[in-house]
Fold this sequence. Notes:
- By secondary structure, the chain is mainly alpha-helical.
- The chain has helices at 7-11, 17-32, 46-56, 65-100, and strands spanning 102-105, 112-116, 121-124.
- It has four helices and three strands, in the order ααααβββ.
- It is elongated.
Amino acid sequence: MMLKPSIDTLLDKVPSKYSLVILEAKRAHELEAGAPATQEFKSEKSTLRALEEIESGNVTIHPDPEGKREAVRRRIEEERRLKEEEEKKIKEQIAKEKEEGEKFKVGGTQSYFFYCKNTQSIKRI
């Protein structure tokens, strides 16, 4: 049985067998996790699909791996910061709605009501 694509054509695309194996494994994991494919495949297995992408030149080794890691770290940090800002805005909106709701006491009971301007209804708590 012969491997398609052949190891010789694959080694023309990457500097060493080690690099080929690492690149293929990482891309196979990405494909398994649902990453979009760069082409149509002949193979069913993700490892062979990754090799097909490497052979076609659609997947290559990043020329600056440390720069790529830093870019990924920055992207993750930015996503975390945006999520925190969104949570803060939601908390502020909740606090604002609580302040806007008119709280009043009815008679001698200890019941409290809020008037919700958005739904224009009175709620008892």
